[in-house]
Amino acid sequence: MLVLLIVKHGKRSESTSKRRLSHHLNIATPRKCFTVAPRDYIIHPDEYDLSNVIADIEEIRRWNKQRFEMEQLTAIVHEDHSRDLCVGYKDITPDEFWIRGHFPVMPVMPGVMLCEAAAQLASYYTQKRNLLEARVMGFGGMEDVRFREPVVPGDRLVIAVERVRVRPKAMIICRFQGIVRNNIVVDGIIKGVPLPVDYLRETAKAE
User: Fold this and answer.
1) Catalytic residue at 78?
2) How would you write the chain as a 3-class SS string?
3) One of 9, 24, 78, 102 is an active-site residue; which one?
């Protein structure tokens, strides 16, 4: 035990001496380099063609209930049924309803609208494939969402969603990414649940 302590002390002293000498001679001591692992695409942009529209806005409306300013998808361009994966995009136009207030002079797409676009893509694919076995899919929650770069008018926001797991008539969980010019601008986990359609309709009639 005594020998071990002496060896450790000697190493510490030698290291300390080197740092002092380097400081005295103004020599930079090498530092450890820590790199952040790159984020992987859900699907690489080379695997889909944005000009190959397989579902336009009219087809999207067959499966999604949003209308008017709340429609946050322009087109669907890719579906992979083996992975339950879907790719679509939203063209950010100068006429978006949020531009006037978020923010005046320097409009930036609100994070909540980025999430809404991803939710609508997940809803489109889930309803089309009847994965949830629900009449209408609604927001159930989100996890680990990160906003990485701003999205502005003139951008094309490409969205990819992939099923993680599903419990029919209860919940579907998907991972999603938003991409602009091949850069991931938002990503996270999104959850979808069945909406109580009859109750909501009765409530609307009562009002």
Assistant:
1) no
2) CHHHHHHHHHHHHHHHHHHHHHHHHCCCCCCCCCCCCCCCCCCCHHHCCCCCCCECHHHHHHHCCCCHHHCCCCEEEEEECCCCEEEEEEECCCCCCCCCCCCCCCCCCCHHHHHHHHHHHHHHHHHHHCCCCCCCEEEEEEEEEEECCCCCCCCEEEEEEEEEEEECCCEEEEEEEEEECCEEEEEEEEEEEECCHHHHHHHHHHC
3) 102
- Listed by start position, the domains of the chain span 45-206
Q: Would you identify the CATH topology of the domain 45-206?
A: Thiol Ester Dehydrase; Chain A (3.10.129)
In this prediction, residues 146-165 reach a mean pLDDT of 98
pTM for the structure as a whole:
0.81
Residue 19 or 203, more confident: 203
